[in-house]
Amino acid sequence: MTSASVILELRGIRKDFGALAAVDGIDLAIAEGEFFTIVGPSGSGKTTLLRMLAGMEQPSSGDILLRGRRINDLPANRRPTCMVFQSLALFPHRTVGENIEFSLKIRGVSKVERRQRAHGLMRLLRLPEELYGKNVTKCSGGERQRVALARALAYDPEILFFDEPLSAIDYKLRKTLEKELKDIHRETGKTFVYITHSLEEAMVMSDRIGVMRQGRLVQVGTPNEIYVTPNNKFVSEFIGDVNVFPVEVAGPGRLRSSAIAGEFTAPKLPSGFSKGHLVIRPEYLRFLADPSGAENSLKGRLYNEYALGSRFQYQVRVGDQVFVVEKLRQQAYGGRLDDDVVIGWDARDSILVTD
Amino acid sequence: MNPARRRRAVHALITAWTLAVVVFIYLPGATLALASLTSTRYFGFPIVKWGLDWWRKTFNSIEIHQLLEVSVKIAFIVMVVSVAIAFFGALAFARYDWRGRSIYQKLVLLPIFFPQSVLGLALLLWFNTLGLDLSWKTAVFAHLIWVVPVATLVISIQVYSFDPTLEEAAFDLGATRWQVLREVTLPVLLPGIVSGCLFSFLLSWGNFPLSLFTTGADSTVPEYLYAKMVVGYTPGVPVLGTVSTIGAVVILLGGYGLILMLRRSRDRRGTL
Q1: What is the ipTM of this complex?
Q2: Cis peptide upstream of residue A59 (ω within 30 degrees of 0)
Q3: What residues of A are in contact with residue B271 (Cβ under 8 Å)?
Q4: For B79-88, how does the pLDDT look when each residue is reduced to its tens digit (9 = 90+)?
Q5: Are B123 and B213 in contact (CB under 8 A)?
Q6: Contact A185/A152 with Cβ under 8 angstroms?
Q7: Confidence tier at A219 by pLDDT (50, 70, 90)
Q8: What is the pLDDT of residue A4?
Q9: Model confidence at A1: pLDDT above 70
Q10: Does A168 touch chain B (CB under 8 A)?
Q11: Which helix (H) or strand (E) holds A322?
Q12: What's the 3-state SS for A59-101?
């Protein structure tokens, strides 16, 4: 990324609340027009970070630069950025139109022009025109999301911040809105900075993802990089069901585990690696009829199976260790519960991570 | 008894009990109105001779006009000042988290529980010490001490249901602090402010113990009623009592109507 395309830069951002560092030194550069998502569990400091970026909190130390200009001390109402809140914070005493036009009215834009802009944004967000004069409290969940986004876009911000606006929405609508948001991002070409606790949500929408833990960014990369090459155990587990067990180097290209008997073939060892965790995604595990040709295999017992729509998930117990295997519906395992099974994987499909 | 009949019986009993309570509470007020409709000099029941003589006399009396004027003046000023103080007090009470808030919350409500006559006496001594002449103005001050906490509590109830991110959102959309207050905070809290006004006005309007000690030569309606009960009763007393009560009811209904109207204008826009 060239420095010319950087719109927002964070240099050593910290936020301390008493003895607690909510944000513990973050360096990051976000590119113009990028959809950047910060993912982390609750308490990881992501909301505090976003509030500093939006100007609602001041960093304890470090600098925030917008196009190279330091904006630490610029209050939220004078920053060319706008936030879509988790609660959406729609003004309950106002209509949809008045909500969308709020920032324009504040700026003294004429009534006719305000109305035009509002209608344009409502078309962009596929909000029916008759909603214009309706009170926001009478709108459905999906409509309210779109009104909140329209209100933020009406401000014509250079960067839009999103504080988990979809977290309170049911699964099906959330999936629709995620895609819609990504479409809006394409259509407007604006920079989006989004926070969520769901890596799955982040994957769908983002150009790049930053995974946050205990006030720090533990990995920044494209969704594909995060998925394929997580650089530590926390990130690999954050993605969802995944098989992780502790390993140490047993010899050249060989691994040993304290949790499971036997040795395994290692994927390419990171330099200096001696001890860590082996990660195997559930879709890379196979049921083996004949274990002889496999690089790695384990004997276990099929404990349970779960239907996940397009896929089936199986719980296989190897000693005390639980393994999760996933198969497409067409390739479902035909056996019975409590069958003795052999599962295996190719070394190149496994990932070594540090703690 | 079969279950359906049993249910009906229980229902009837509850209805009867509720009616009895309502009658018990509101009948004295009605009696007061009846007592004012006599043409005789003294109170007696049943009414021997009906008439509106005392209503006429009361409305023609300059003294009564003055009483009403003083009472309205005090109540109005108390309403305006206490709601102004209570609005910001309620924000501190319920909107902001700050060190000492929990002590403030207790301290600010304490005056409600002072025995009012003791508070009145204390204020009387205090005004004397300061060398202030007692008049309706000192009564305004006395009323405020008792009314502001109540108004703060009433408005706080509305503030508790206020989502502070609304203010942040408005600020983030470019509004100044003042615009946030005018465009978001005040309108959203308006129903609470109207309730605060009603409480302030009516509590001051009906207050007797504080006025008794602090109005000096001026007199409010409740004071006059009390004085006339002690010495020199005429059916003018129930007339004024009825007027005072009806006035309070009208204001209460008016305020309630205003809140309804605010809500409905919101809803009406909703069906456009």
Answers
A1: 0.85
A2: no
A3: 134
A4: 999 999 999 9
A5: yes
A6: no
A7: very high
A8: 52
A9: no
A10: no
A11: strand A321-328
A12: CCEEEEEECCEECCCCCHHHCCEEEECCCCCCCCCCEHHHHHH
| A306-324 pLDDT, tens digit each | 998 889 999 999 988 899 9
Structure tokens, A55:
């100007």
Residue B97, chain A, CB below 8 Å: the answer is no
Residue of chain B with shortest Cα separation from A107 = B174
Q: Say whether pLDDT at B43 is over 80.
A: no
**Fold of the domain built from segment(s) B61-267:** MetI-like fold (1.10.3720)
Is the predicted pLDDT of residue A60 greater than 50, yes or no?
yes
Is B176 close to A85, i.e. CB distance below 8 A?
no
Q: Which class for A296: exposed (0-12), middle (13-18), buried (19 or more C-beta within 10 A)?
A: buried
Tell whether B193 lies on the interface with A, counting CB pairs under 8 A.
no
Contact residues, chain B, for A96 at CB < 8 Å: none
Q: Do the chains contact at B169 and A107, CB–CB below 8 Å?
A: no
Q: pLDDT tens-digit profile of A233-270?
A: 899 888 878 999 999 998 888 999 888 888 899 898 87
Domain ranges of chain B: 61-267
Round to whole Å and give the CA distance between B272 and B266.
11
Task: Give CATH for domain A241-353.
Answer: 2.40.50.100
Q: Nearest CB to B165: which of A78, A87, A95?
A: A87
User: Residue A234: which of A46, A48, A41 has the closest Cα?
Assistant: A41
A138 touches chain B (CB under 8 A): yes
Where do the structural domains in chain A lie, given as residue ranges?
A: 3-233, 241-353
- The predicted-structure confidence for A271-300, as pLDDT tens digits, reads as follows 788 889 999 999 999 999 888 878 899 999
Q: What single-letter amino acid sits at B102? A: S
Chain A residues closer than 8 Å to B259 by CB? none
pLDDT in tens, B102-138: 999 999 999 888 899 999 999 999 999 999 999 999 9
Closest residue in chain B to residue A97, using alpha carbons only:
B269
Check CB contact of A57 with chain B, cutoff 8 Å.
Answer: no
CB B86, CB B155: distance < 8 Å:
yes
Class for domain A3-233, per CATH? alpha beta
Tokens 């010495």 correspond to what residue? B231
One-letter amino acid at A238 equals: F
Nearest residue in chain A measured CA to CA from B179: A106
Angstrom distance (rounded) from CA A194 to CA A39: 8
Give chain A's length: 355
Residue A264's closest CA among A204, A344, A157?
A: A344
